[in-house]
Amino acid sequence: MGVRRRTVLPVTRTRYAARSRRHGSRVAVLVAVLLVLPGIGGCRDEPAQPVHIRIATGSPTAVYHAFGQSLATILNRELPNVRAEVLVTAASMENVRLLNTGAAELGFTQADVLPADPGPDPPVVAVARVYDDLLHLVTTANSPVRTLTDLRGRRVSVGAAGSGTEITVSRLLTVANLDDQVHRLPLGLDDSVVALRNGEIDAFFFSGGLPVRAVAQFAQDNPTRIIDLGEWTAPLRRGNPEVYVPRDVPRSVYGIDPVTTVANPNYLLVRADLPEDLVREVTRLLMERRSELAAAHPAAGRMSPRSAIATSPLPLHPGATAYYRDSKP
Asked: Which CDD domains does the record cross-reference, listed alphabetically (predicted)?
């Protein structure tokens, strides 16, 4: 009786001059890659197991989650044998931890959460710079809190433990000499909104892309004030020169007085050990389906290939680099 031979599909990477042919080739290559990934199975006569992509996001009412949910829908629809799902998390710091421990494949983070020097071979790298977070300091319109220093002695939500908000706020309170003068509560966005509505806190911080849905809803239902933080950008930049920049929150966003605040880049990260062709396809869909992503949240519509490559201090994944290189006009 003869031995049944297993035929493993080859992994090739042929480039075509015509973009439509190139994309078709990439999908074919991706199918081959997914079939030969360890633990997936490489036999023609055995059904391939789906490749799971877990996307670490944040609060269900914040931008990361809306963005991630839309991205998961696109990946499930357009990548053969991929099963993408969204993880609800405390956001940036937890997302980076999940990627580092192998509990997620993709994840969003603020740039100021990342180490200034990730080393020569980081286990987590970048797919794209996706948009900028703006730091919100939210209170009620009749509150005595009108400036950052008015938080002295007050109850303030500084963001959930493990969030990028917590990191940014900690640095902000330090440069404002308010470290030990604010009663800090580690609440996530949804709990912060409830606590402010119920008078359990005097204000809350949240860092997110415009508009933050939970903030918009609160402002619609309650007289609201967002505190201007523009003067604190320069002090923050002294210790983090490549991260923080001033950005405006215009009246049109929440229907209240415009302010200037502190902005911070957001990145979509990926585990460095994911296959190049898979990450290339994820990057392609991220860029080519921007209008669909923007329908889920306007912040996603601000991406572009030109801005996406600015992911310092992290390098781009080779698959992302290949997409940006090949997609140049």
From this structure: PBP2_TAXI_TRAP_like_1 (cd13569)
Q: Do domains 19-130+266-326 and 133-265 have the same CATH topology?
A: yes
3-state SS assignment for residue 58 = coil
User: Which band of pLDDT confidence, cut at 50, 70 and 90, is reported for residue 203?
Assistant: very high
Q: Where are the domains of the chain?
A: 19-130+266-326, 133-265
Q: Which CATH code is given to the segment(s) 133-265?
A: 3.40.190.10
In CATH terms, 19-130+266-326 corresponds, of 1.10.3720.10, 1.20.950.20, 3.30.870.10, 3.40.190.10, to 3.40.190.10
Q: Measured between alpha carbons, how far is residue 124 from residues 54, 173, 287 in Å?
A: 14, 29, 20
Per-residue pLDDT of 16-44, as tens digits, reads: 344 444 555 555 545 444 544 443 344 44
CA atoms within 13 A on the CB side of 148: 25
Q: What is the pLDDT of residues 247-303, one digit of tens each?
A: 999 999 999 999 999 999 999 999 999 999 999 999 999 999 999 999 998 988 889
Q: Output DSSP code: residue 81.
A: T
CA proximity to 173, closest of 235, 249, 224:
235
Question: What is the spatial distance between Cα 125 and Cα 298, in angstroms, rounded to a whole number?
Answer: 25
Q: How is residue 27 annotated by DSSP? A: H
Please list, in sequence order, all residues whose beta carbon lies within 8 angstroms of the beta carbon of residue 112, skipping any fewer than 6 positions away. 164, 167, 168, 171, 240, 243, 244, 264
pTM: 0.81
Is 76:58 a contact under the CB 8 Å cutoff?
no
Quote the CA–CA distance of 16 and 21 in Å, as a whole number. Answer: 6
